[in-house]
Specification:
Elements (H helix, E strand, L loop, with lengths): L14 H19 L19 H17 L21
Length: 90
């Protein structure tokens, strides 16, 4: 997504620690690639606890369909960064 990220995580450590690590590493790389400095991500984030396998499947389908909804591709499988991508074999 050009302005946000969706991810399904199965954490074994504190979620804020995971999110912080992802944001720090990706912000450094994005700023390097864009030849800029300063904040990249907003400080907040939204999480949602998945409580059962039905909700897990629905959540993953939502995440995989997000690039389609944003008109970045025609099908979830066409988005190269998705678990639905045929290239990744997932």
């Amino acid at each position: 997504m050009p302005n946000h990220v969706h991810a399904a995580l199965f954490p074994t450590i504190d979620l804020p620690r995971i999110v912080s690590g992802i944001k720090v590493a990706s912000a450094k790389e994005a700023n390097r690639l864009l030849n800029r400095i300063g904040p990249f991500w907003s400080s907040d984030y939204f999480d949602r606890w998945v409580r059962n396998s039905t909700e897990e499947r629905r959540t993953i389908r939502y995440i995989e369909n997000n690039p389609v909804k944003a008109r970045l591709c025609g099908a979830p499988e066409a988005w190269p960064y998705s678990t639905a991508s045929a290239e990744r074999g997932w």
